[in-house]
Specification:
single chain; 327 residues; alpha/beta; six-stranded parallel sheet; 10 helices; 35% helix; elongated; Xanthine dehydrogenase accessory factor; XdhC_Rossmann_dom; MoCofactor_Util/Proc; XdhC_CoxI
């Protein structure tokens, strides 16, 4: 997910500010099975220190070995892994999954131009708008173009002289309230690469909550959402069974561009909630239709961990644009 890419860009910024040349790698295309999607990023220094990933292991090892040996001194290099022919400047590394991987490697010196483009990338990943990063394959020049966020993450131009990589807000999960299910959901989401924000004003719940890498806002989820907490790559999930937390969060979430809005409860509870939201919240049929209730895939979940798994599986399904009947 793109929150991993945000970590890569922030690491690249830190190293560039320290005067280090960095190599920014972008997955351009995958063929067959691959653990990382087009647009995924890795950044490395000449000494092999790196952040992010391209394949989950084998490709990174080969790339870093060659980098430390002095390879990739050009501004732009194209690699093709898993291809028997090796590809342009490629390495004949067989991927365990049997697929092939095309990677763009950019050498970015520690100068003002590199800082500027990395700052633009960071602001885009943290913001609420989309851009296209267009890279010239002849000289490595970069141009940013406005974008609506629709379409494939990577587009290779027909003239073979440039590639376009879509950049948008990092995938975000807002958890409305702390509960046994939401704690596990937060852990799953962080592992999946989401930026996770937990909102809960209840001091007794906050006192026992502490998860590395997860932001906590000690306010009502509805207040955080109403003050700009959501963008188009945001999922809002309410898992407390407390209408004061869950219902208010739903009322605000439907007024945002969040791609997923869901609340936990049985079919009977969900019908009662829908009536409350119509009566007290003034929500219409279109608003109600946006809310996934009951939340999650119907896996027959019983335990908090199983419920959290069903929730995050459904969030990822919607994020990837997969209809339920295609599963």
């Amino acid at each position: 997910m793109q929150h991993l890419d945000l970590q890569v860009v922030e690491r690249a910024l830190d190293w560039t500010r320290s005067g280090e040349t960095v190599w920014l790698c972008t997955v351009l295309a995958t063929f067959g099975s691959s653990p990382r999607e087009p647009g995924s990023l890795l950044v490395a220094r000449a000494d092999g220190h790196h952040a992010g990933s391209l394949s989950g292991g084998c490709v990174e090892e080969n790339f870093l070995e060659r980098l430390q040996a002095g390879a990739f001194d050009r501004s732009v290099t194209l690699l093709r892994y898993g291809d028997p022919e090796g590809g342009a400047a490629g390495a004949r590394v067989a991927l365990p999954c049997g697929g092939t991987l095309k990677v763009l490697v950019e050498r970015l010196p520690a100068d003002a131009a590199t800082l500027d483009q990395l700052e633009v990338m960071r602001a885009t990943l943290c913001g609420q708008h989309h851009l296209i990063r267009q890279v010239q394959l002849t000289d490595g020049q970069v141009q940013f173009l406005d974008d609506d966020g629709l379409g494939p993450r990577v587009v290779e131009r027909g003239d073979c002289e440039s590639v376009q990589v879509r950049i948008g807000p990092a995938a975000r999960l807002i958890l409305a309230g702390i509960s046994p299910v939401s704690v596990i959901c937060a852990e799953f989401a962080r592992t999946l690469g989401f930026e996770v924000i937990v909102c809960d004003p209840r001091e007794e719940r906050l006192a026992g909550f502490s998860l590395a890498g997860i932001a906590v806002q000690p306010v009502l989820p509805s207040l955080f959402i109403a003050t700009g907490g959501c963008h188009t790559a945001t999922a809002v999930v309410a898992l407390t069974h407390d209408p004061r937390i869950d219902d208010l969060a739903m009322m605000e979430a439907v007024r945002t561009p969040a791609f997923y809005i869901g609340v936990m409860g049985s079919w009977q509870t969900s019908r009662a909630r829908a009536e409350r939201l119509r009566r007290s919240g003034g929500l219409g049929d279109a608003d109600i239709a946006r809310i996934h209730m009951p939340i999650g895939l119907a896996l027959g979940s019983k335990t908090p961990a199983e419920i959290a798994l069903a929730v995050m599986a459904d969030v990822v399904r919607v994020l990837r644009g997969r209809p339920r009947d295609a599963l």
